[in-house]
Amino acid sequence: MLEVKNLKKRFGDFEAVKGISFSVSKGEVLGFLGPNGAGKSTTMRMITGFLPPSEGTALICGHDITADPVEAKKCLGYLPESAPSYRAMVVEEYLAFIAEIRGFRGAKRREAVERAIAKARLEPVARKTIETLSKGYRQRTCFAQAIIHDPAVLIMDEPTDGLDPNQKYAVREMIKEMSAEKAIVISTHILEEVDAVCTRAIVIADGEIKADGTPAKLKAMDPSGRLDTVFRNLTCKDGGKEATK
Ligand code: ADP
Ligand code: MG
């Protein structure tokens, strides 16, 4: 459902993403792991058509995001790193507005909004203004926006960042609930997220893929069997010794 082909991004002389390729099938939840600055958001912004790649492209259900962005985006939901910017809007009206942009009209639009509110469990706040919501509900509003057209491919950039443990749990449950029917990519630097929701993980550092496999396969890369050790070995030049001094 998602095929990422040799994506590269240069900002001036600096190469932030250095040729990333991977595929995600229906039913997979891929954890995109890496330290801050690894290139996770840049890669996701290229996959979702918000940033033109310097080289390479991504196919969303067979549609090329560079050559055919309109068709590709119909199959794609994106939860960006930052919260929604329409702070003064009521949740329900905001979602109706997003549905309208997505091409839903009349009863279809109402249905899409109701479905997204139910899936993101937003019923208690549907009539409230976004700026009055807790961080958890604001994140769920963002989540509802990303799934309003029931996309086959869902890309989420640090979906649980800044949430409390209960809110994190709720978001992970929503992701799991939808995972059978979709190809999902979530970026994170929280390693427990991998065990909680991912069927597979890719570790990136310095704009390159360092490992790709099931959580069990990644853990087996170090005798300790610990994901945090494997992550440090892959993403720190000195294996993390400097950071622990
Ligand atoms: P991550 O999401 O993994 O934390 P990013 O993809 O945001 O990392 O950033 C990867 C690298 O690219 C960082 O070094 C960052 O400073 C740089 N970068 C990101 N966006 C820009 C930009 N618009 N201009 C210049 N450098 C950028
Ligand atoms: Mg980021």
Molecular structure report:
This protein has 245 residues and is of the alpha/beta class. It has two domains: 166 residues, P-loop containing nucleotide triphosphate hydrolases (Rossmann fold); 69 residues, no CATH class. It is built from ten helices and ten strands. The strands form two sheets. Strands 6-7-8-3-9-10 form a six-stranded mixed beta sheet, sandwiched between helices. It is globular. The termini are far apart. The model has no long low-confidence stretch (mean pLDDT 92). The site of magnesium ion has 4 residues, from helix 1.
Which sequence of SSEs, written as H and E, runs from N to C?
EEEHEEHEHHHEHEHEEHHH
Strand order of the largest sheet: 6-7-8-3-9-10
Mean pLDDT: 92
CATH topology type of the largest domain: Rossmann fold
Q: What structural class do you assign from the helix and strand content? A: alpha/beta
Radius of gyration: 18 Å
- Note the gap between the termini: 44 Å
Number of strands: 10
Strand content: 15-25%
For the structure shown, list the relevant keywords.
six-stranded mixed β-sheet, binds magnesium ion, 10 helices, 37% helix, Rossmann fold, alpha/beta, binds adenosine-5'-diphosphate, 245 residues, four-stranded antiparallel β-sheet
